[in-house]
Design a protein that fits this description.
- This protein is elongated.
- The chain has helices spanning 20-29, 89-100, 120-137, 151-155, 176-187, 206-215, 229-243, and strands at residues 3-5, 15-17, 37-41, 46-56, 59-64, 68-69, 77-83, 104-108, 163-167, 193-198, 218-220.
- The chain is an alpha/beta fold.
- The protein has 7 helices and 11 strands.
- The strands form 2 sheets. Strands 1, 2, 3, 4, 5 and 6 form a 6-stranded mixed beta sheet that branches. A 5-stranded parallel beta sheet has the order 8-7-10-9-11, sandwiched between helices.
- Residues 75-240 form the Ribosomal RNA small subunit methyltransferase E methyltransferase domain.
- Its EC number is 2.1.1.193.
């Protein structure tokens, strides 16, 4: 069944007039008819069956069923601190990360970033990418995208996490599996709040890795092969989500 996002403030009455863009998609793209249904989710953990009651040239009205909790969220709360990337690679990481189940995105400006900053237009595009991925993947909670952080700003937030993973291509011997094993040796099967740090196209500098170590991060290698940054982020995220699935 099709799923669409609408913010909770638009879902306070039984009958809802769909926003213009969504109405166009329902009426003209999907060519749905009165009596057909789809799912609306509010990005905060609730979803509704929405039955089309009226289709007209200037809009679409639906009747909402009773709210229910979404079931598409992972147990692990994983925040991805991802360095900015060139072209559409950062958007790809947002899209696939949302599909995988990442809870929160924090863009980073690190030493080897060569991408531009985030204009309002670019941020709006990022948000749209996340919404569309959440609709597709059956997510119930929309992952927020924070303002761009420096590494020092990101490290200042680490008290909110139980485990911080810093993936560095020059790390040797200590793997993601080792970090998970060491956490479980202390905390057992408790599900942690995890921060995952991924560098830009050129990775992190030795100075950044040392600062991460001093801040309490686990410096890990993701294996013998060199991966693109966006590939590394998804490989690490998938492994962590699997460990606590």
């Amino acid at each position: 069944m099709h799923r669409f996002y609408l913010p909770s403030q638009q879902l306070h009455s039984e009958y809802v007039n769909l926003p213009e863009q969504l109405a166009h998609q329902v009426r003209n793209v999907l060519r749905m008819r009165e009596g057909e249904s789809f799912i609306i989710f509010d990005g905060e953990g609730m979803e509704y069956d929405a039955e089309i009651t009226d289709i007209r040239r200037d809009g679409v009205t639906v009747r909402l069923g009773d709210p229910r909790s979404c079931s598409g969220e992972p147990r692990l709360r994983l925040t991805l601190f991802h360095s900015l990337l060139k072209k559409d690679r950062f958007e790809w990481a947002l899209e696939k990360g949302t599909e995988l189940g990442i809870s929160h995105f924090v863009p980073l400006h690190t030493a080897r970033v060569i991408a531009d900053g985030a204009s309002e237009i670019k941020r709006a595009r990022w948000q749209r990418v996340v919404i569309e991925a959440a609709e597709l993947a059956g997510r119930g909670i929309l992952p927020p995208i924070d303002e761009i952080h420096t590494l020092l700003q990101a490290f200042a937030r680490l008290s909110a996490f139980d485990l911080a993973i810093f993936a560095w291509e020059e790390a040797r011997g200590y793997t993601l599996r080792d970090a998970v094993r060491d956490y479980r040796a202390v905390y057992g099967e408790a599900v942690p709040r995890v921060a995952l740090f991924i560098g830009a196209e050129g990775g992190f500098t030795p100075e950044e890795a040392e600062a991460a170590r001093a801040a309490g991060c686990k410096i890990v290698t993701l294996g013998e092969r060199v991966m693109r940054a966006e590939t590394a982020s998804l490989a690490a995220a998938a492994a962590l989500l699997y460990e606590w699935s």
